[in-house]
Model the fold of this input.
Amino acid sequence: MKKFLLLFLCVLLFTGCTQTQIVVDSSDDNSSSDVENNSSDEQSGPEQTSGHESTPEPVENPTVKLLCAGDNLIHSTIYKQAYNRTGGNGYDFGPVYEEVADLIKNADYAVLNQETIVTDEFEPSNYPTFVTPGACGDHMVDIGFDAMSVSNNHLLDKGISGLRSTLKYWSEKHPDILVYGASTKEKEDDIPIVDINGITFAFLGFMEHTNDVPFPRDSGFSITYLYETERIKKLVQRADELADVVVVSPHYGVETTGVVSASQKQITQNLVNWGADIIIGTQAHTVQPMEYVTKPDGGEAFVFYCLGNLVSHMDVPLGMFGMIGQLTVTKDLETGKIILSEPEAIPIVTHYDNNSSHSNLKIYRWDNYTEELAKKHGCPSFTYSLAKKTFENQLKIVDYLP
Done:
């Protein structure tokens, strides 16, 4: 199947790399046989030579710089400040993300956990049932995100109507964005696959729960909970057959703790055993460690146990600490093996001022954040030293720390 996909892919030039998105239907298992058989008929005889042998040009292995960001958790403070910036004529989310926009744009492919439903069919709303205006989703696309995981506990905040509305927003407003973690029922067994620079990536997303909101199986939509292990195993194994790299986004772990739970460890190892290559963890709302995980064949997968929040207006210090993960993916054309290298965690801090309106809420890269700013932070118990200690202990990326 991989051979068929690679022969059939179209080549597009987009943001400096080739990206072709395809969705593989579950009924397409045997479609490669005709292509493979026909290729042998086109051999026209002995190869002609020029009388001397020349040294072939070395073939460069394709590489992809993959970026991933954590929970885009849009509290009312964030969208109200965006609304006020325009004088009530729309929303301006630009200042919130300006310090990380270049990082996102410069990646070959950027993945976001969109923690809240995005739609203009409902009025914007805050915790515990979030609704984010479409202008925020538009801005996420503008700054360079290519894929959105929607597999999280807030997906059913407005019930099936909200799920239908957010999927409609993404499919109608941004059809080129890969959205995974929920789908219509008719597409529940399809595997979203994208070709980037000649490497195919499959994306899957699963969540632990949906905040005690039941999911009606006859709704016409499909989501998958992490306890549905047999279904997940089949999906991951199938994705592994179809793509070079399998990316899984599990929404798991205990909130506001940097400790990786035993459940996270077990789920991660299961996903890797079944064929996952990259695990992008979210849910804990703070940074957790990252590491290589051994695959059954002796190879290596990589996991970010939790990226924390990309942005939020939480009122606990650990909720202010996040990271943007980066990883270089290389395909060895001689062996077909995938190599994951240069894992990187770029620490970020969400800041808002210590005043009645909690003004100037925005993301700062840690290397641009100062002790003076930290003293003005409106989150109780937030300190510069706590942020530094958290990043040093969890990420082990001291190069970014001033």
Observations:
- The radius of gyration is 22 Å.
